[in-house]
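Quarterly update from the structural biology core.
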Amino acid sequence: MGFVDELKWRGMLQDIMPGTEELLNKGMVKGYIGFDPTADSLGVGNLVQIMNLLHLQKAGHKPIALIGGATGMVGDPSGKNEERNLLNEEVLNHNIACQKKQLEKFLNFGEGENAAELVNNYDWFKSFTFLDFIRDVGKHITVNYMMAKDSVQNRLENGMSFTEFTYQLVQGYDFYYLWKNHGVMLQLGGSDQWGNIVTGTELIRRKDGGEAYALTTKLIRKADGTKFGKTASGNIWLDPARTSPYKFYQFWLNASDEDAANYIRIFTLKSKEEIEAIEEAHKAEPHLRKLQKALAEDITIRVHSENDLKRAIAASEILFGSSTADALQTLSEQDILDVFEGVPTFAVAKAQLQEGLDVLQLLSESAKVFPSKGEARRSLQENAVSINKAKVTLESKVTTNDLLNGKYLIAQKGKKNYYLLVAE
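Predicted structure, tokenized:
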């Protein structure tokens, strides 16, 4: 299957310049996508374009990831309501190094004619003077042409700086430079980038009489209208230090049926037949959420690792009562904090646990899990209390040996009421 056909059946294709598919069918094509280096991690929103490059490479073409070291100092106004903060060179270089490591998990940067390449537009902009730029680039694109772009029109009411206004010229020159010096014939991106991309093809045409091509993918919208890639707690990042594998896994697992059917086509490499089989199995037993699990497992392994997936699944099962005391021991401190985020938390003096503390005293006095000893006693007698997923009785004692990661205890009364005890 060709690259364009692959994007079509996956529901990814939005705009394509005439002649693009014919170009791709003739032989290997070099195509590039720009990534914004304003953070030291890519987010799940960037995964659409990473998958775009991956499909390009799998179809036999050469993917080029452009990290915008120069454009990161300017700021792309597309889809933005306000101008963002500009970063210095040191921060940008750090962010670029971090993003490259993430791209290497998906793209083959090794040997071969169509091995992926990473380029940084700062390399050709750092010695490009302002006067040279407005003479060699600015004179070819009219203000009327630039003003007509949606990214400009949408900001005119509140105003935009000259810096952001010129962004499309800077991105357009990226395409010209790569076309002229590296034989790059195709630029790809999200549909919000169409205006910037065709500025590049127009610059190539006007400056050198050349031809170049463009292709964009659809912007992802969640079924409920909320923005893809964000949760109540913020962005979902690929870096485990920013978004833990547990939270990453949960993001995909909590997708609606409609969204999951869309995501599994976009973010996995599963074939049409595999996806349709999963969908049929999901329809037969929707309560098992087979579609969401297949999606979450696939993308968690590829972004993180199989071991991270296993830990994420173990952590997920805790709240649904199917995990064991042994499973808790496999969780990291961050896993524990993520799983029990928002549950009532109590501090417990670690010294009290040195020689063992009666569970009755622990849960009614040291930590006010129960409002009184009487209520705690009744629940213990009814076998309704657990510590670290193990049932406890009136005779039970809790010691420092029971602490998870040397610091935490998980108390539970009934099936759904959890409490996090922190030994200090």
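The mean pLDDT is 89.
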